[in-house]
Amino acid sequence: MDVADLLAEEACSCLLHGCDVKDKKYQSNKGHDVILNKIVALYFTSNWCEPCHTFTRVLSQTYQLVEKRASEIVVINVPIESDLDKARYCFKTMPDTWYTISHDNQHVKVLISKFNIQIVPKLVVCKGDGSVITYRGRSEVESKLALAVYNWLDAAKPKPATKQVINGFEIDDVPVEETANDK
């Protein structure tokens, strides 16, 4: 894991464990409760950005394509707007199941900085523990649609434990040496 990944993981963790997110009614929810056991898609966007409007539609349609698995994913809008009305207007165009961070929340600046957001739209996909699955969520959705989401779901699954092999024996199969007391 390089420094950028560590900073990103720290940023996700900070957001997810110490930040309130707003639902479509603009009611506050604890970030931790919203993302518990889910994949988190951090969607950096802005109202003035036409590519953002286009990608919002593509991402919304993709989200609908994976309807049966959509409950395993939470999309959190991270507005880069400085104007509350514009940020809220942009969020209103998004699906009802998505969340947003208030535009003036200190975590927005942290996320923008830690993920080095220089252009929007940008979609960063993380596991619920804050580890990053991909920084290229936008290009993956645009090229693969629902397959991108299924790939993220697979990447978030716990990996099966591997057995260590020592001198041809799996670690669980290593014979125990007999002692004099065992004879």
From TrEMBL:
Listed SUPFAM superfamilies: Thioredoxin-like (SSF52833)
Sequence ranges assigned to domain Thioredoxin-like fold in this UniProt record: 37-132
Database matches in InterPro entries: Thioredoxin-like_fold, Thioredoxin-like_sf
Entry's Gene Ontology BP terms: negative regulation of protein ubiquitination; negative regulation of Wnt signaling pathway
One Pfam family matching this protein: Thioredoxin_8
GO molecular function, a single term: thioredoxin-disulfide reductase (NADPH) activity
Name of the featured protein: NXNL2
Lineage of the organism: Eukaryota, Metazoa, Spiralia, Lophotrochozoa, Bryozoa
